[in-house]
Amino acid sequence: MHLLENIKEAFRSIHSNLLRTVLTALIVSIGIMSLVGILTAIDAIKYSLNATFASLGANSFEIKAKGYTNRFRRGGVQGKTYPAVTYLQAMQYKRQIGDQAQVGISAFISGATEVKGNGQKTNPNMNVMAGDENYLQIQSYNLAGGRAFSPAELASGANVAIVGTEVKDKLFPGQSPVDKYIYLLGRRFQVVGQLEKSGSSMGGGGADRLVLIPLETGNQMPRQRALTYDIKTAATSPDNLTYLTGEATGVMRAVRHDPLGQEDSFEVEGSDSMASKLDSLSENLRVGGFLVGFITLLGASIALMNIMMVSVTERTREIGIRKALGATALQIRQQFLIEAIVICMLGGLLGILLGVAMGNSISLFIGEGTFLVPWLWMTLGMIICVTVGLASGYYPASKAAALDPIESLRYE
């Protein structure tokens, strides 16, 4: 019998024992579903967490002036404190980095601030920050209403503000704060935007207790001491982060006029370690998921082998007739092997579809619910199906091929 005829015969045998075949295929599909589902869920969750970590700064780093909180270092030598990053230095750095990355400059204006408006006032725990045009994007803050600062407002230092949800709820409950006025630090500001609710962030209220004003406006605010500017640089791709960190260090040394051979007068604080830890964790999860799926498939292969052994026993007389008509042992073996592979392939296709759906459903509850089509795991699942079919069908097929035709014809 040719390969095509063996496949046709396998489908005829499957159709004649439909219930048994369906149950066997379901056993295989459960094994493949667990394997593909677990691996798909891990990949989808990793994708979601990568996006979250990127918003938390996994693809970015901050530059701050270097200093020591303790007065003395080893040996009683007084620790050296370098000058803070000035506004001019921050702007020079931003210009020199250019289009290689996105640079956001911000300054902390005031904490524990009371904000008034609409005849109401907030608790004295609001934070006032000054930021440039990239601040919202680089901090991953989204607007729930209104707009961002215009270039004219940023350049002129206009008295405009973007407020968090807690500020809005205290001062303008049940209404939009956009185009209304608030009072803080002795000035009146027009609200042009409202931030989306972010929830508590490290106990500080996140963006909910934030009042954001233009950077130039912050420079004009009365203060007792010079502002400290924070520079946050975001790479366009995680792969460029290492190169960009080195480039930024060189640019900042030139901007700060650090002498050759002297240590950096600033610190580069990156959080890219989160991404590497996530990769390591996901690899361990994949290994664990593969082992769980493998154990399930092992049980499915044993069940398939048992079903094929029953099939050989039931079709002993049929095998004897085929051998009497001239079928060789190789052809009999091929027939049963192909039948086992076809059953596995049918169960595998169903298992892959269920696994992809299951994996993406799990990620929907844990992450952002990004739908992922795992072509690698789908291909691996089909290869495993063929392997399971060969492994489970070989012994029953060999047993069928070794049957004596005369004894088989006498079998009742």
Defining traits:
Putative ABC transport system permease protein, ten-stranded mixed sheet, alpha+beta, single chain, 2 domains, 412 residues
Offer a concise description of the structure.
55% of the residues lie in helices and 16% in strands. It has 412 residues and is of the alpha+beta class.
Task: Please characterize this protein's 3D structure.
With 412 residues, the chain is α+β, with helices and mostly antiparallel strands. It has two domains: 3-53 and 276-410, no CATH class; 60-270, no CATH class. Helix content is 55%, strand content 16%. It is built from 13 helices and twelve strands. It has helices at 3-16, 18-56, 87-97, 135-138, 151-156, 165-171, 215-220, 241-256, 273-314, 316-324, 329-366, 375-401, 405-410, and strands spanning 60-65, 101-113, 116-117, 120-121, 126-131, 143-146, 160-163, 181-184, 187-195, 210-214, 229-235, 266-270. The strands form two sheets. Strands 1, 2, 5, 6, 7, 8, 9, 10, 11 and 12 form a ten-stranded mixed β-sheet that branches. Strands 3-4 form a two-stranded antiparallel ribbon. Strand 8 and strand 9 (187-195) form a beta hairpin. Helix 2 (18-56) packs antiparallel against helix 9 and helix 9 (273-314) packs parallel to helix 12. The two termini are 26 Å apart. The chain crosses the membrane at residues 21-42, 287-312, 340-366, 372-395. One of its GO terms (cellular component) is plasma membrane. InterPro entries: ABC3_permease_C (IPR003838), MacB_PCD (IPR025857), Macrolide_Exporter_MacB (IPR050250). It is a multi-pass membrane protein. Residues 291-404 form the ABC3 transporter permease C-terminal domain.
